[in-house]
């Protein structure tokens, strides 16, 4: 009788863990950006600003701005103030679509990434000096995107949740095994 109750309790705990794992694994989200998602700008910005729902820290190469043609903007050292990240940028390139790629470390330690897409409707006046660096800049944006493996963090469920599920599953197997042994008749 007791093993059945223990098995029921373990099953209830596993069910609760699975149901509650989604909200518990929530990460910070980008609340706003400048330039804004989908914005059409007449002039290139002198800095980018990202506002998150909680304080964040930055890994190396946290911000990158790349045009559709592969030309990268020069990004200065980013600054963090709680959930607000700002970085000076030196724009270069023609009127075209641009992608601002960002990487931050959430409060719970997980890496969070995203993109902001915007368009410049007029070319940047100082496009000539930056064009000389475009071959190396064009090859660097693809590396992080294609080389980033799918990890548990990128799925959004922290590793500790999976460890907890594994331990609970092991306990359930042990309880079932004990129940099976107790139910056998003695020879």
Provide the fold topology:
Blueprint (H helix, E strand, L loop, with lengths): L1 H23 L5 E5 L5 E2 L5 E6 L10 E5 L6 E2 L3 E3 L2 E7 L6 E9 L5 E10 L6 H5 L2 H6 L2 H6 L4 H4 L3 H25 L4
Parallel strand pairs: 2-9
Antiparallel strand pairs: 1-3, 3-7, 4-8, 5-7, 6-7, 8-9
Helix pairs in contact: 1-6
Cα Rg: 25 Å
Query: What kind of oligomer do you see?
Result: single chain
Query: What's the CATH C level of the largest domain?
Result: Mainly Beta
Runs in which pLDDT lies below 50 for 5 or more consecutive residues are: 127-157
What is the H-and-E element order?
A: HEEEEEEEEEHHHHH
What percent of the residues sit in helical stretches (DSSP H or I)?
25-40%
User: How far from one another are the termini?
Assistant: 22 Å
Can you give a write-up of this model?
- The chain is of the alpha+beta class.
- It has two domains: 2-24 and 158-183; 30-152, Immunoglobulin-like (Sandwich), CATH 2.60.40.1220.
- 37% of the residues lie in helices and 26% in strands.
- The protein is built from six helices and nine strands; from the N terminus they run αβββββββββααααα.
- Strands 1, 3, 5, 6 and 7 form a five-stranded antiparallel beta sheet that branches. Strands 2-9-8-4 form a four-stranded mixed beta sheet, with no helix packed on it.
- α1 packs antiparallel against α6 (159-183).
- The chain is rod-shaped and about 90 Å long.
- The two termini are 22 Å apart.
